[in-house]
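User: Okay, second chain of the day. Same drill as before: sequence in, structure tokens out.
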Amino acid sequence: MIYLKTTDVKEVREKLLEQQEFTCPLCRKTIPTDKAVLDHQHRQKKTDPIGINGDGMVRGVLCNNCNQIEGKIANALKRFQGITQKSDKIDFLYNLIEYYTHYR
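Assistant: Same drill. Structure tokens below.
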């Protein structure tokens, strides 16, 4: 795993955005360059050593709005359900999708 310097973020974001064909993977809308956010995994606890649990791992580029929504969902799962592990977040979200699909 390579940690990016602040000066490298813009270049990496632009390369990933180009690879994604300037499309947000969540909302599928075109991302204007000035609204592109480099999405990455945050530490679960401030006391965790850097690099644990995928901390710092870049996932891709999101539009600003989707990045904010993703963060709010992750924070709400942690706050209200105590869910911090990636696999548990994924399970919860799959269950939510099934629930929504069943009750269309």
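DSSP finds three helices and two strands in the chain.

User: Thanks, on to the next one.
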